[in-house]
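Changelog-linked ticket: flavin-adenine dinucleotide example.
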Amino acid sequence: MAEFTMELNDEQKEVRDWLHGFAADVIRPAAAEWDEREETPWPVIQEAAKVGIYSLDFYAQQYFDPTGLGIPMAMEELFWGDAGIALSIVGTGLAAVGVLANGTEEQIGTWIPQMYGDASDVKVAAFCSSEPDAGSDVASMRTRAVYDEAKDEWVINGTKTWATNGGIANVHVVVAVVDSELGSKGHASFIVPAGTPGLAQGQKFKKHGIRASHTAEVILDNVRVPGSCLLGGKEKLDERLARAREKAKQGGERVKNAAMATFEASRPAVGAMAVGTARAAYEVALDYAKTREQFGRPIIDNQGVAFQLADMRTSIDAARLLVWRASWMAVNGKPFTAAEGSMSKLFASETAKQVTGQAIQILGGNGYTREYPVERMHRDAAIYTIFEGTSEIQRLVIARTLAGTPIR
Ligand SMILES: Cc1cc2nc3c(=O)[nH]c(=O)nc-3n(C[C@H](O)[C@H](O)[C@H](O)COP(=O)(O)OP(=O)(O)OC[C@H]3O[C@@H](n4cnc5c(N)ncnc54)[C@H](O)[C@@H]3O)c2cc1C
């Protein structure tokens, strides 16, 4: 097990500087344009693919860094550049992780390359779990997948919502109910390739922030996929369902805890995105406070402004430490006995909202306009307390973990 460290090693610093260069030179200059256009920034994704930032290999390398700092460092730098564009670059990863976690070697080898495409023809992927009536309450999902044994096909019906890259993806990973008695343990994931009859994009959402990232409904109307598109395969699914039925009879405690561990491990990455946005806004505010003069002196000479910056920096550093700790725990298999993954996401996302708001205040009227980036960063920051589990759900998980009560 790697020791917890608060210092990046030389190799990590090199990667960080390289990512920072890409974020500063390619992402940040394009941010305002794609925010206004509210479209997927394909040329930027293509640039990322050319240099190796848009590929599973790159993220896998960061993920398997035993210090646990690879992923948070990468997320912080890319989201420092711009949250909407960065989500367009890393959003495919959500679907890729779905396949890596549940798929067979053959499925991984077949579908992951099709999710990314290549630098001359980049593709994206979507992970479709949320539904109009199943957001925080994932267990109330309605999308059904029914097995047609005669044809060895699955027939999927339902409506997914809020899917990042939904409808424009080359590969959709769709979570559906296969046994409605088992709650979230009766769910399975399916690959739905682009162009499958019955798969369609519904409404594309016009959003408050991260507007360069495409978010849409996905309609599944009698979608038929071959048996080979069930992630993990039928035999493994049948075994898993039998085990879940058995455990449900015994009270289901261990089942719930296993599901929780998965979320705990992925939440620090979202926390790191929030740290990136918060740091970006703080840096703009600090520069501004040093150069903007009122009453014959820089505004940072007023304690009322300087103290805000002190609080902003303190919260950002605290958030990063919580994220790094949780990420180190996840990679090294340490049990999340106090829901440390949720803690890191909760604190970092609330920090991003707070800090970007303070940055607007420090820039005064300029902060409120699109001439300066903090207005966009504040809009972007609001997503972190909503997706991948809202702040209320993080509190619920932390509280129930401390109380020792089951987490549904
Ligand atoms: C831009 C964007 C991108 C997204 N990308 C994806 C994606 O790629 N794939 C995907 O599957 N999903 C995605 N989501 C969905 C996201 O994960 C959900 O929006 C989120 O889980 C919340 O669900 P909901 O919106 O239905 O809110 P609800 O669950 O309806 O919650 C509404 C409010 O009630 C509160 N609440 C709910 N239950 C409780 C409770 N028990 N105790 C206290 N408070 C509670 C919530 O905290 C929230 O404040 C995305 C969402 C957005 C906005």
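Closing comment: Example verified and attached. The two ends are 30 Å apart (CA to CA). The mean pLDDT is 95.
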